[in-house]
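Obj: model holo form, ligand = zinc ion.
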Amino acid sequence: MKQMYCWRCKCTVPMLDEEEFAHLDRVYQDCAKAVIQYRKDHRVSLTQTPVADLFQAAHRCYEQLTGTTGVATEELLKHRIALYGRPCPQCAKPLRTPKARQCFECDAKVSAAIKPTDATEEQNKGRIAVWLDPEDVRFLAAHCSCSPNAKRGEEQRCGRIRFRASAALHKSGWENADVQQ
Ligand SMILES: [Zn+2]
Ligand SMILES: [Zn+2]
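Output (holo C-alpha cells):
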C-alpha cells in the first residue's frame, strides 16, 4: 500500500500493490456475482438491487487493507499502483498510465522510461564494458568512418557502434545527440 494522487478522486488515496489488489479483487468479484444472483432471484433491475449492501464485503476488505473508508465502489479496483505511471518529473503526481508520455496535471512532456543496462545479460551475450567520456561517446554516435567502398559487414558494424553509442548517451541522460544512421 502506498499513498498516491488519484486523478479521478482529485486527492491522495491509498493505492494497492499487486498482492493486496489480488486479495481485494477476489472479494470484489464475489460481490459482483452476488449482485447478479440477487437480480436473478428477485427478477429486478440494477436500480432495484441493494448494490451498496452487496458490496459491503469489498469495502470492508479495502478498509482492512488501507485503513480508509468512503471510497466509491467503482473506484475500489482503480486504486491499484500498477495502473499508474511513474511520478511526473515536474509536479510529482503519478502519470495516468505506465505508458503516458505527457502529464495531464501540468502538461509536462515525459521521455520514455529508460531501461537500465543489465550487466549480467550483456556479459552472457559475450559483450565487454567500455568506459568513455560523454563527448567521446557523442563522437562515436555521430561519426561514420566507413570509406565509400566499405564492405557490407563493415557498414553494419559501424552502424551498430553508432546505434549503441547513441543508446548509451540516451541512458546516461545525454539525449540530444544527433545520430545519422
Ligand atoms: Zn480514485
Ligand atoms: Zn506533472
